[in-house]
Structure formats: C-alpha cells, structure tokens
Specification:
heterodimer, A: mainly alpha, MetI-like fold, 10 helices, 77% helix, elongated, B: 335 residues, alpha/beta, Rossmann fold, Alpha-Beta Plaits, 2 domains, six-stranded mixed sheet, 30% strand, ABC_transporter-like_CS (chain B), membrane (chain B), nucleotide-binding (chain B), ATP binding (chain B), cell membrane (chain B)
Chain lengths: 224, 335
C-alpha cells in the first residue's frame, strides 16, 4: 500500500496558531494606520483635482506623482528600503512590529487612490447643493462627501485589507512571521506540502471572512 | 430686490474662449416670481448661479438688497448663501439621509438652532410640502415629485428671502410639474419670498411667473411682464420660445392663408376684455364680417387672455379704433 498523500501528523498546530495570530496582528495594525493616513491623503487628492473645491494643478500633479512612485515600488523592495525608517519608528526592523511600517507605506497610497475614486463617485450636484447652503469646505467633506461615499469607502477598505493580507506573506523576508511566511519556509523551502495546504486554507479563510464582512457593511451602508 | 450690473463671464474650453454671460443687466423686484428662459447653452444656468456666487462673474456686480455679493469675503458669502435657498433639477438630496434628515441638514450647517428647535422646524417644513408621512424614508424610496418637495423644504429651511430654482420641474412628468409649480406659487404668496427660476419651457413661465427675461447667447434679449413677452414677443429667440409652447397665436401664417380675402389682424385680449362679445360687436359696428382663422385662449398665471388671428374685409384703421376702444390690442399682419 502506498503512503498517504498527506501526513497531517507532521503539522505543528501551535505554529499555525501563532502564524495566524501574527497575520491578524499585522493586518489589524497596518489597516488601521493605512486608513488613518490614506483617508486624509485621498480626500486631499480629490479636493485638489481638476474642477474640485481646492483645484490646484501643480499640487495635484506633485501629490499624484508621489503616490504613483510609492505604488510602483514592489513591496519586497519597499520592505528593505524602509528598514532605517522602520527602526526609527518602532525601534526594530524585524518581526511583526517591523513589518507594520512598510505595510502601511505600501498600502496607504493604494488606499488613497481608492478613496479619491470613491469620492469622485459622489454626484457633484450634492457638493454644489451643500455649497449653496453656505457650508464650509470642511463641512462639505465631513458632512456630505464622506457620508455619501461611505459604501465606496467601506469597499475600498475591504479591498485594501485583502491586499494587506497578501503583503504580509512577504514579511517573512524581514522575519515578520505570519501565515504566508510559514507557507514559504515550511511548505515551499522544506517541502512540507501539508503546511502549505493548511496555511493556504487559513489565508483563504481570512480573506473570505474579510470580504464577506466588507460586503455586509457595504450593503448596510447603501441607501440607493 | 436683486440688481445685476454689467455681468460678464467667459470660460476657457479646450483653449477657446466661450462667452457665457455678456453684459447682463437685470433688476428683479422683491416678492415676485421672476423667470429666466432660454435654450440649453444660452447661459441661464450660469446666470442663476451668479446670484449666490456659485459662479463668480469675471466683471460686474451682484447686488442683493443693496449688498454687493461679489465683494464679500468667504464668511460673508456663506452667511449670504444661507439666506438664499436653491432647488435643483436633479434634486441633489443626500442618499444616506432620510427625508427629515435631509431637511435638517440645512439647519445643521447653519448651526443656529438646538436639536429640539430643529426637529420642530423640520416638522413644520414637512407639513408645508406635504411629506409628513414620508419623514423617515430615504430619497431612493421617493418619486421624483416627492424628491423635489424635499428639495424645496430643504431650500426653505433657513427662512431665506430668495429662492433660486434651477430647472426645478424639468425632470418631472407634466402632472407632477403642475403640482410643484403650484407649491412654488403657494410659497411665494404665503411667505412673500422672491423666486428666481430658470427654465427652457414657456409653459412654466406662463404658469407662475410675474416677469420674464429671455436669454440667448449669453445676453438678455428681452424682458418684461409675462403677458407682454408672451403675447407680443419682439426678439426672434422669444418668438421661438413662445411658438414652441403652442399656446399663442403667433405662428407664421405666410403662404398658408393666401386664399383668404381681406386683411389679417391679430387681436389680443387680456383680463376683462376676454369676457366681452367684442368680435360680434365690432363686426356689427363695421357692418363687415370678421373671420376667425386661428387663435388660442388660456391663462397667464391668473390672468385670462385670448389671442386671435382674424380676416377682415373693410377698413383696417376703423377696425383698429373699434377694437382699441374695447380694450383689445389689434395689429395688422402682413398677409
């Protein structure tokens, strides 16, 4: 009788548990900071855009270029390039903590672009009507634009969260840990296909849950 | 009272200069419903938006009750805008807010009332526009006419002295249009506020406006009382707008009535003259039959009018004198 295809006894479930927790920690922390940083950036990008409230072509072009530059950088490179910055920010360049700054720098420009396009989906008539009611720019943003764009912003957050999950897989390069790292080190480099299967399934579950939660929030926020 | 002095506005479109407004001079009396009519692209939308400075004119002054709006700073402009309500063709309601919350939005931005005073004001406005039942619904659940009622209630929330209507009925069906126009008329009469509306439909102007200005190619080509402009349009653009409405006897008859013997006259009856048997009396007086060829009767706001094109065999000047003595305007038309 041939050996079974998979030998599940090889799996160290404690490792899988730790890795899952690491992934979730990196995801939670980096998503929080990505939103805190990317949302104002996206709003600014929108406001500076052509025919918008604070239209300013040179400022828009500059900001747009910086965002594009960051977005075109492969994440693996960003992880390494940012090491000195990471050390300054969190005191270490390795482990889960060391992975969070590069994750934020990698995802925030992406999220900012999604925020910009979600805001562009809001009918300009609503901006005009709010302006005609004597609103300040801050009131237009906080009372009309952001609440009206909420379904789009939630969808953008969901997409960003899923992207961050795949970024965390690369954090193994700097010893960041997490499910992706486990998959590469055990599943790929040590030919432990069982670990590969379990980590991939765990990642799938994380992504699936994120997407479902995101879709549910978007549905709840939509009034159209 | 609104006065526009020498307003000019040009746009840059693909490197070309496009004139949107050209030397606009306009006086809008307080308490009236003032219509600005023109085709799309004539500049009426830009003109309306200069009144609350959503469009800033390149030159000229916008005086609202003697205050030059173009000279105000940002804070002054916001205060002014709160005293000017605006209603839009596509309603521009906030989708994430209920009907009541959309109306409260204008009050929240102004920040002058506490929450119980806001609730009371919202209830009052809902009753005014007849939407008390729909207070907790979202805009997506409303019909077009209901959405526009919310738009009107929101525009009235801060008790403005001026209401701007940007094609407020153009997205509505004819029946709903009539209901919304009646609501605007009612508001004008009950609250005494000035309404400036822009439209491309003469029927809207005829239904509720007191005065009208015709805009064409960025210029005001004609203005006056609705009765004057509607029954005796002087400019080609005005004549076209009136003709499209199909409710005045101004159609070009040349070539169609060549078989009619005699002279063609256009008779215009307004107010009391519409109730008198004028045609029969004049026919008897002149001892010559009057042949009615074309005509229309109707109402301009609440004034009855009639306009007829008649054929007459006999003395035109005697007929004109006879009609004039009965308060009927009589013009000889080139046959």
């Amino acid at each position: 009788m041939s050996a079974p295809l998979f030998d599940w006894s090889l799996i160290d479930w404690a490792d899988i548990g730790t890795a899952t927790l690491d992934t979730l920690t990196m995801l939670g922390a980096s998503l929080t900071f990505t939103v805190l940083l990317g949302l104002p950036l996206g709003v600014l990008l929108y406001l500076l855009g052509p025919r918008r409230l604070l239209a300013n072509q040179p400022a828009y072009a500059t900001l747009s270029f910086v965002i594009n530059a960051l977005r075109s950088m492969p994440f693996v490179i960003l992880l390494i390039v940012l090491i000195p910055v990471t050390v300054k920010l969190v005191g270490t360049s390795i482990g889960v903590a060391g992975a969070i700054p590069p994750l934020v720098v990698g995802a925030a420009p992406f999220f900012a672009r999604l925020v910009e396009s979600a805001l562009r989906e809001v009918d300009l008539g609503i901006v005009e009507a709010t302006q005609a009611m004597g609103a300040t720019t801050w009131q237009i943003v906080s009372r009309a634009l952001l609440p009206e764009a909420l379904p789009g912003l939630l969808a953008a957050t969901t997409v960003t969260a899923v992207t961050l999950v795949s970024y965390t897989a690369m954090s193994g390069v700097i010893g960041g840990g997490g499910l992706g790292d486990l998959a590469i080190r055990y599943g790929y480099q040590r030919f432990q296909t069982e670990v590969m299967v379990i980590t991939v399934l765990a990642l799938l579950a994380v992504v699936q849950i994120l997407q479902m939660a995101g879709d549910w929030l978007v549905r709840r926020a939509t009034r159209k | 009272m609104i006065e526009l002095h020498h307003l000019n506005k040009t746009y840059q479109v693909d490197g070309r200069q496009v004139t949107a407004l050209q030397d606009i001079q306009l006086q809008i009396p307080a308490g009236q419903i003032f219509g600005i009519i023109g085709r799309s692209g004539a500049g009426k939308s830009t003109l309306l938006r200069t009144l609350n400075l959503l469009e800033r004119p390149d030159q000229g002054r916008v005086l609202i009750d003697g205050i030059d709006a173009t000279a105000l700073d940002q804070a002054g402009l916001r205060t002014l805008r709160r005293q000017i309500g605006m209603v839009f063709q596509h309603f521009n309601l906030l989708a994430h807010r209920t009907v009541a919350a959309n109306i409260r939005f204008a009050l929240e931005l102004a920040g002058e009332l506490d929450s119980s005073a806001m609730a009371a004001r919202v209830a009052e406005l809902l009753a005014l526009v007849g939407l008390t039942e729909q207070a907790q619904q979202y805009p997506a659940q409303l019909s077009g006419g209901q959405k526009q009622r919310v738009g009107i209630a929101r525009a009235l929330a801060n008790q403005p002295k001026l209401l701007l209507c940007d094609e407020a009925t153009s997205a509505l069906d004819p029946q709903t249009t009539q209901a919304i126009l009646q609501l605007l008329l009612d508001i004008n009469q009950r609250l005494g506020l000035t309404i400036v509306l822009i439209t491309h439909e003469m029927a809207v102007v005829r239904a509720i406006c007191d005065r009208v200005a015709v805009i064409d190619g960025g210029s005001i080509v004609e203005q006056g009382t609705v009765a004057d402009v509607f029954l005796h349009p002087q400019h080609a653009a005005s004549r076209n707008m009136v003709a499209e409405d199909g409710h005045a006897a101004v159609l070009d008859l040349a070539g169609k009535l060549h078989s009619v013997a005699g002279k063609l006259l256009r008779l215009t009856f307004v107010d009391a003259a519409t109730y008198e048997p004028v045609i029969a009396e004049v026919g008897q007086q002149l001892a010559s039959p009057i042949n009615i060829l074309q005509g229309s009767v109707g109402r301009i706001k609440d004034r009855p009018y009639g306009q007829l094109i008649v054929g007459l065999q006999g003395d035109v000047s005697a007929a004109q004198a006879a009609f004039a003595s009965r308060g009927v305007r009589c013009e000889a038309l080139a046959a």
